[in-house]
Amino acid sequence: MNSLRLISALNRMALNSGRPLPSIMSAVHLAQTQGPYLPVSRSLSTTPIRSDIDSAAKFIGAGAATVGVAGSGAGIGSVFGSLIIGYARNPSLKQQLFSYAILGFALSEAMGLFCLMMAFLLLFAF
Length: 126
Known about the structure:
single chain, mainly alpha
């Protein structure tokens, strides 16, 4: 088990340094002094211009996703407008029309919330 750790540590040191190790004894000495696991850190570095373009793309995408909220408002208005028209034409179907209107309201509101959720994901998660 320890030999496997030593071999993997030696491989990581050889890959991280970019040059061949001079001897196995110096590699063993490095492995003993630095421990069996070497931290490998990789970071994504971007230039300031690239960062500005990325943030601008986030804002544009979030604005485009927010347009769906306006569609949700229009859909809710259409549903309840149709409810009033249907109730005016046939008052005896009040309960059935109201249950359909609530279903249409819920579906339309859910789509608006999904659009809002995508906007927040674009802004804060990516």
